[in-house]
Amino acid sequence: MDNKTITITKDDLATAIRALLPAYNVYAPAGEGERLAFAALDESRLGAINLTGSPVIPPKELLFPRSESLYTLDPETGAATVPEIAESTLIFGVRPCDLRGIENLDAAFLEKGYVDSNYAKRRENTTIIALACVTSPYETCFCESMGGDPLAAKGADVLLTETKAGDAFTAAFQTPKGLQVKLLWDSLAMDCGSAPAMTEGSKPAMTEGSKPAMTGQHNTLRVTKPDDLPQRLMAAFDDPHWAVLSEACLGCGTCSYVCPTCYCFDIDRESGAKEITEYRCWDCCMFSDYSRMAGGHNPRPTKKERLRNRYLHKLAYFDERYGMTLCVGCGRCIAKCPASLDITEVIEWGGGAL
Ligand code: SF4
Ligand code: SF4
């Protein structure tokens, strides 16, 4: 793999992204505060790019949309139309924890003999430019507690890291898709004297010696996760503490909607006179009717069972099936829960003594 790096000054960032627009549908964090979101970019939106925070809704929505039509049927002829999946999408500014979240989705949607075709097509068509967290975007981040590294994103096609001086980014090209981006930036540098400054360094940006330190807010190791956490929590399945933990929960589902690793969905149908649409949309295991069965029986009748299921799926069941934890420590569910529930308290409790 070509491991050359490029340095892009912040003044040149818009120019660098503009160079990607003809080749990709580009999405990047844009807007301010609570409205910060991964937005489709065009020339008019380049000035709205904001890399100082992390959108509340993670980039998973670009691979696994909140709601999508699976197909439409003409009720008269029975002819089905399947929507096209966009080709050549590029997501700019994905944080390392959210990239690990995408790796969780890859396992759920692409492994164990089951391939979700819509997810697979989007994943194949998507290039990811990650942004190292020199400063944590949330006070509640705890990615290092969950085995993550705020400064590395191995699975990203390109990794951007802010330089120590804070006036530029170093771009490391990590995959063949990343090298396609480099080609576009190389040609830009040839065409325009003021375009991204080129550093023909032969070392990747993230080698040990040159690894930049986190310079801003950094509290990503907030809790110690015991290696046997899954076993501890499973052994505590009947512990009365689950009821205590769930007392304040409102069942609003915010925790799932903001989570980069939650992937439950529902499939439903909308029938109109001219068209019948089968669609799927995000669902949430914290909703009271999520596990209700056709006959009316609900194996998770109260919020105690629902909250226990959420945390066991995150911290034990997924690990058992895929060998990885389904929480990447992004901290969003802690920051956004209206009842102040905190998954790190569950990790700290760890099911009590075995
Ligand atoms: S965000 Fe908080 S209150 Fe809402 S369902 Fe999740 S844990 Fe319960
Ligand atoms: S469970 Fe919470 S902290 Fe963990 S990945 Fe999901 S939103 Fe982030």
Features:
354 residues, alpha+beta, 2 domains, eight-stranded mixed beta sheet, four-stranded antiparallel beta sheet, 10 helices, 18% strand, globular, binds iron/sulfur cluster
How would you portray this structure in words?
With 354 residues, this protein is of the alpha+beta class. It has ten helices and twelve strands. The strands form two sheets. It has an eight-stranded mixed sheet with strand order 3-2-6-7-8-9-1-10. The chain has a four-stranded antiparallel sheet with strand order 5-4-12-11, with no helix packed on it. Strand 11 and strand 12 form a beta hairpin. It starts with a strand and ends in a 5-residue tail after the last helix. The relative contact order is 0.17. The model is unreliable at 200-210 (pLDDT under 50). Residues 258-261, 314, 327-333, 343 line the site of one iron/sulfur cluster (SF4).
In short:
With 354 residues, this protein is α+β, with helices and mostly antiparallel strands. The protein has helices at residues 13-18, 96-110, 117-124, 176-191, 229-235, 241-246, 254-257, 303-322, 332-336, 343-349; strands spanning 5-9, 25-30, 37-40, 67-73, 80-81, 89-94, 126-131, 158-162, 168-173, 198-199, 265-271, 276-282. It binds iron/sulfur cluster (2 copies).
